[in-house]
Amino acid sequence: MSFVSDILEFNDQFVDQRQYEQYLTDKFPEKKVAILTCMDTRLVELLPKALNLRNGDAKFIKNAGAVLTQPFGSAMRSILIAIHEMGAKEVLVIGHHGCGMTQLDSGALVKKFKENGISDVVLDTLENSGIRMEKFLKGFDKPEDGVRHSVGMIRRHPLVPSFVPVHGFLIHPETGKLEWLINGYEQAQEK
């Protein structure tokens, strides 16, 4: 049986037994917060528990390293929608110790692309179109750098109201211990 078959079989039982009822909520974040965090598997359940958040409390936006790479990319769009459409009043950027984006080797990743069948023609076409792999796949030296970068991009974004606090945190992926790096209240302006 395949992984997807297992999922579908479980899902049928989940729905038939009405296990979904404990997760019912609406689309608006109860705690009025949007959280940009890393896609690391260790944070899936740990992060919400460590923050005392339940299903429906926050809008979670996840990507590699919790790093925004473009001011008008999809992760930033999600943050803007959370603020302007979903009622988020604060934004938290939460990176973590031991992040895989720390000192990411873009050259080694391009080599893996090739090993997985991506041709030089495709890579050359991307490069000739202005996609620089060393920039596109750039990580950071320390997870704090990634958090500071993302907080700065959100804070300076022309579509983020100046009164919205944008905080920066690091979480320990084993203990859930949270470190407050950037106090967004100090930078937010009165409405």
Could you explain how this protein is built, in words?
The model has no long low-confidence stretch (mean pLDDT 95). Strands 2-1-3-4-5 form a five-stranded mixed β-sheet, sandwiched between helices. The N and C termini lie far apart (57 Å). It folds into two domains: 32-97 and 142-191, Carbonic anhydrase (Beta-carbonic Anhydrase, Chain A), CATH 3.40.1050; 105-138, no CATH class. It is α/β, with parallel strands linked by helices and 191 residues long. It is globular and about 50 Å long. 39% of the residues lie in helices and 16% in strands.
Determine the structural class based on helices, strands and strand pairing.
alpha/beta
N-to-C SSE series? HEHEHEHHHHEEH
The first-to-last residue Cα distance is 57 Å
Q: Low-confidence parts, pLDDT < 50 over ≥5 residues?
A: none
Write the layout of secondary structure elements.
Blueprint: H1 3-16, E1 33-38, H2 43-50, E2 58-63, H3 74-84, E3 90-96, H4 106-115, H5 120-128, H6 133-136, H7 143-156, E4 166-171, E5 178-182, H8 184-187
Parallel strand pairs: 1-2, 1-3, 3-4
Antiparallel strand pairs: 4-5
Family: Belongs to the beta-class carbonic anhydrase family.
Pfam families: Pro_CA (PF00484)
GO molecular function, one term: carbonate dehydratase activity
What is the gist of this entry?
InterPro entries: Carbonic_anhydrase, Carbonic_anhydrase_sf. Its cofactor is Zn(2+). The protein has helices at residues 3-16, 43-50, 74-84, 106-115, 120-128, 133-136, 143-156, 184-187; strands at residues 33-38, 58-63, 90-96, 166-171, 178-182.
